[in-house]
Amino acid sequence: MGILNLTPDSFSDGGRHADTDAAVAHGLRMAREGAAIIDVGGESTRPGSERVGSDEQIRRVFEPIHQLRRVLDGRGFEYVAISIDTTLAEVAEAALDAGASMLNDVSAGREDERMFALAAKHNTPIVLMHMLGDPGTMQVEPRYEAVVSEVLGFLLQRVEAATAAGIERDQIWIDPGIGFGKTLEHNLALLGALDRFVATGFPVLLGVSRKRFIAGCCPQVDGIGLADQRLPGTLAAGLAGARAGVAALRVHDVAAHRQALSVWSAIHPGQG
Ligand code: HH2
User: Fold this and answer.
1) pLDDT tens sequence across 65-119
2) Is there a domain that residue 146 lies in?
3) Which of 98, 161, 176, 219 has a Cα at 20 to 30 A from 202?
4) Looking at the domain assignment, is residue 272 inside a domain?
5) CATH number, position 193
6) Which residues participate in catalysis according to the annotation?
7) Ligand 1 close to Cβ of residue 205 (< 6 A)
8) What values do phi and psi take at 209, rounded to 5?
9) Which protein residue's CA is at the shortest distance from atom 15 of ligand 1?
10) CB 125 near ligand 1, within 6 Å
11) Segment 190-206, tens digit of pLDDT
């Protein structure tokens, strides 16, 4: 899953794809590099970020999704899905109208209760992600008794809420939400226990790309405070995900992941 942020303030690529042509070109490039899903977002969820209303999110994402769908279809990438990274049903519905076919809700349906009804009505895949609190407060002293069981338990509760709202089980993905209300230790515990998430049978999405925990693992590395210096650590964490059997990695650097995963699967044929 390649990341296409249409936001002025995303933590690693804010403002880079602000106009439609640049956004479409980047989406097409990621498809060529091997992405099977392009995840489009009009709101940053980085710690402390400002919330963006539905009108502004729709203004940011509608035309780029519409154009990208047309360009992907015209260039032989009909099989590449566009997902919409939003917690608001109005934005999700506009994105589906524009050509998206998957929902990525970092609030797992808690922020807008209409999200589940929308996913059920359109029978689209939906990603349910774990977050402690909300982006404004999530990194203020996050605490768990047992982080892996709590995150897993939360996700299974949200799966039940989603199916109760009419979503088919086979349309549900789960995501432990690396960096969303977690300390370095919490993130590492989750990354070390991904097999427990995979064992639920739901496809697991893993988002580690350029995140801050990578800097926490190697504070001695020059420049590691900058998000775009974290590709090697991102690849290492992504391969841990591949080993555990996650279904998709949400990444900024598609070509580098394609290469790393190709080598990994050549060594482990049939596993990834
Ligand atoms: N991480 C981010 C955003 N959306 N969705 C899922 N399912 N899982 C994630 O781990 C995840 C996500 C944060 O990364 P990014 O989009 O690069 O930054 P920002 O939120 O600042 O736009």
Assistant:
1) 999 999 999 999 999 999 999 999 999 999 999 999 999 999 999 999 999 999 9
2) yes
3) 98
4) no
5) 3.20.20.20
6) 211, 250
7) yes
8) -55, 120
9) 10
10) no
11) 999 999 999 999 999 99
